[in-house]
């Protein structure tokens, strides 16, 4: 591996540090929800320290989450930074078609300081072949089609949600998105584990499938200023 001068200095600093000099990185609590959570305590989440929520909006090109509107309103009223996510069905229609549908039904972005860029949820097929019958190259092309369409229409790159296992199996560990799309990594462990696809770090870690106030538990990798920067671009 060829290291830059900065990398060499950083590596020296890390290896030379004693436990007393290593500070815990700031994080911000968040969560994600869908219609499966019929009751969500947004205010309770905010009061406990949560500052963002990602809300299911759509699937494919025909399904709109029936709770999206009420969830979005509840999150906004509680003072949470919020955004929508789209559950991908790469075997059903093109990435462009699904991005367009997502944008028309809650997945848009606005530079208001409280809206996250949309998130593409691409993971294990819940009702068929793990990789939706697509080859690794075809899957990468599908994701690129979605990403390009979203970026063209909003000027923002969508976040990508996945797992290390699925990404490795179904995209071949593609590094095509690590410089553009923030990674939301699902890993239900005490440590995040392997980060796929060339991403140097996760932007958000979904670390548990249950959160006290509703949905899954997430953690933003940074402080509140960084979270606000993700919202504003």
Give short descriptive properties of this protein.
single chain; 233 residues; alpha/beta; eight-stranded mixed barrel; disordered N terminus
**Low-confidence segments, ≥5 residues, pLDDT <50?**
1-24
Principal-axes shape call: globular
Q: Could you state the order of secondary-structure elements as H and E?
A: HEHEEHEHEHEHEEEH
The strand order across the widest sheet is 1-2-4-5-6-7-8-9
Notes on the protein architecture:
The chain has 233 residues and is of the alpha/beta class. It has seven helices and nine strands. The chain has helices at residues 5-16, 42-47, 68-78, 95-104, 136-154, 164-171, 224-232, and strands at residues 28-33, 52-59, 63-64, 81-87, 119-121, 159-162, 183-186, 204-208, 216-220. Strand 1 (28-33), helix 2 (42-47) and strand 2 (52-59) form a beta-alpha-beta unit. Residues 1-24 have low confidence and may be disordered.
């Amino acid at each position: 591996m060829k290291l830059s001068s900065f990398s060499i200095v950083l590596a020296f600093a890390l290896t030379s540090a004693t436990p007393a000099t290593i500070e815990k990185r700031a994080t911000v609590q968040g969560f994600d929800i869908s219609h499966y959570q019929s009751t969500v305590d947004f205010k309770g989440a905010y009061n406990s320290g949560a500052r963002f929520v990602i809300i299911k909006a759509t699937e494919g090109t025909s399904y709109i989450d029936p709770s999206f509107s009420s969830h979005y309103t509840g999150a906004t009223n509680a003072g949470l930074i919020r955004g929508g996510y789209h559950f991908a069905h790469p075997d059903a229609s093109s990435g462009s078609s699904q991005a367009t549908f997502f944008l028309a039904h809650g997945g848009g972005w606005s530079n208001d300081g409280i809206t996250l860029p949309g998130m593409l949820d691409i993971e294990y097929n819940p009702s068929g072949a793990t990789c939706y019958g697509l080859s690794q190259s075809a899957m990468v092309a599908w994701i690129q089609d979605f990403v390009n369409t979203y970026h063209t229409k909003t000027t923002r790159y969508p976040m990508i949600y996945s797992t290390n296992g699925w990404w490795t199996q179904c995209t071949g560990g593609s590094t095509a998105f690590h410089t553009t799309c923030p990674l939301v990594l699902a890993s239900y462990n005490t440590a995040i584990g392997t980060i796929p696809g060339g991403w140097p770090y996760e932007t958000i870690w979904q670390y548990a499938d249950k959160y006290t106030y509703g949905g899954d538990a997430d953690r933003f990798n940074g402080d509140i200023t960084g979270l606000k920067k993700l919202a504003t671009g």
